Amino acid sequence: MTKGKKAKPIDTTTEEKIKEAARVVFLKKGYAATRTRDIAEEAGINLALLNYYFRSKEKLFNIIMLETVNGFIQTMTTILNDEKSTLEKKVELIASNYIDFVLREPNIPIFMLSEMRNNADGLLERMPVIQPILKSTFFIQHQDYVAKGKITEPNPFQFFLNLLALTIFPFISSPLVKLIGGVNDTQFTKMMQERKKLIPVWIKAMMKAK
Amino acid sequence: MTKGKKAKPIDTTTEEKIKEAARVVFLKKGYAATRTRDIAEEAGINLALLNYYFRSKEKLFNIIMLETVNGFIQTMTTILNDEKSTLEKKVELIASNYIDFVLREPNIPIFMLSEMRNNADGLLERMPVIQPILKSTFFIQHQDYVAKGKITEPNPFQFFLNLLALTIFPFISSPLVKLIGGVNDTQFTKMMQERKKLIPVWIKAMMKAK
DNA sequence: GTCTATAACGTGATAGAC
DNA sequence: GTCTATCACGTTATAGAC
User: Fold this and answer.
1) Can you state the angle between helices B14-29 and B57-80, rounded to 10 degrees?
2) Which end of chain B is more exposed for a tag (fewer CB within 10 A), N or C?
3) One-character DSSP codes across A149-167
4) Which SS3 state, helix, strand or coil, does residue B208 take?
5) pLDDT band at residue B129 under the 50/70/90 scheme
6) What's the rounded mean pLDDT across residues A185-209?
7) pLDDT category, B8, cuts 50, 70, 90?
8) Is residue B81 within 8 Å of residue B138, measured between CB atoms?
């Protein structure tokens, strides 16, 4: 989005078709449950081409994983580091942007988190984008609010965690939500749309709780 | 727990050893990434014994999955349906009990949720324990509070979802928490202990937010 | 670049001795 | 009941024709 020169083309190359297919299947089933044949079929190409372009299942996976995590984190850091917006505005933006984002690709959170659980090969540590979050404007603004007595929770990380939890958890638990709540896809989407407005209100209330 | 005649024995049978090992490995790696050989090794027994006792990997998995989900849901429904405790008390109990529960077995939430994502074979629907949650005392009390104007959020499900999110999400995202926050295991446990007290306070504040 | 055919390997499951 | 040895199969990856 920020690095490409051309807009998303209609006619994709074979390589791109495979990558797109890999993305779909990996995100849906996870690494271990995915067979390269699934990807080839999804891409409408022959199995051999997958290895021709990407050498191995694992290499292809690493590319998808990296891009996915990067996309996720980058959106985050951009918002967190915007010096023009207030802390309250950042909360709104994160809730709103991420709910839209994940509504478009609902499998991303559970995919990322379940693949990270063993942190195989230390894939996480190799992502340079991650650490700066602690030093972001968001966290500085939080400390500032604490100093001014506008926030009762002094740990910025608990605060950040709560925001993420309220935003992302419903998607991760959507199978349960749909079953327990008797909610269908349309209703689920509507619930999440409501939450775009509710989360900032809730967070604001939590900030002053004691 | 409710069906056994004897307390947990020190000397376990082979069958139990296998089941315990299966539990450990499945919870850690998930169904697809687990090899029956991993389980056999973890149990300190021969691979053939696994099939002797449980016929197949899938059957063994279904047993583990069922027990895990049942344990999780049962604890929940017991608290939710206690007619003696107030809504506030239930919130305390859920936060406190589940944080202790998951601190003991941190892999349970991500395991359950990632295995449910495709809901293969409709495993979820076959669990009778799940539906009654909507009709629990917890939800009735919530409706009562709404009627009395003590709660601003009229949707009990959003309310319940928030409670679960604040309680469980940190565990699911613990790899990220540890990396981004530079938190080690001891500090993580301490953070979660703090949350046992904080979550009820936060929820209380959210209840009155508008 | 793309395909078919097949090699190489890993994994679930079983046969059969003890 | 427990083991070793092995089968049967599915999956990743490659060789080689086009």
Assistant:
1) 80
2) C
3) TS-S---HHHHHHHHHHHH
4) coil
5) low
6) 96
7) low
8) yes
Fill in the amino acid letter for B12. Answer: T
Q: Give chain B positions within 8 Å (CB) of A200.
A: none
Residue positions counted in chain A: 210
Q: Which of B165, B173, B198 sits opposite A113 (nearest CB)?
A: B173
> Which residue's CA is nearest to the C1' of nucleotide D5?
B48
Average pLDDT of span A71-90: 93
Structure tokens given for B31:
């169904």
| Residues of chain B contacting residue A29, judged by C-beta atoms under 8 Å apart | 32, 118
Which position has the higher pLDDT, A178 or B118? A178
A5 pLDDT more than 60:
no
B45 touches strand D (CB under 7 A): yes
pLDDT above 90 (res B10): no
Residue B128 has pLDDT above 80, yes or no: no
Q: Which domains does chain B have, with CATH numbers?
A: 12-55 (1.10.10.60), 63-208 (1.10.357.10)
A35/A29 Cα distance (integer angstroms): 10
Closest CA to A43 of A30, A64, A25: A25
| Token pair in block for residue A100 | 């839209």
Q: Lowest mean pLDDT of A83-87, B11-15, B117-121, name the range.
A: B117-121
Asked if residue A209 lies in contact with residue A154, where contact means CB atoms within 8 angstroms, the answer is: no
Distance CA A50, CA A57 (A): 8
Q: CA at B114, C1' at D1: how many angstroms apart?
A: 36
Which pLDDT score is estimated for A182?
Answer: 86
Provide the token pair at A206.
Answer: 């939590």
Is B198 in Cβ contact with A153 (below 8 Å)? Answer: yes
List the one residue out of B82, B90, B95, B110 whose CA is nearest residue B26: B110
Which tokens in the block code for residue B80?
A: 């939710």
Q: B159 near B153, Cβ under 8 Å?
A: yes
Place of tokens 């063993």: A118
HSE-CB for B42 with a 13 A CA cutoff? 20
pTM beyond 0.70: yes
Question: Which chain A residues touch B133 with a CB distance below 8 Å?
Answer: 180
A9 Cβ contact partners less than 8 Å away, ≥ 6 residues apart: none
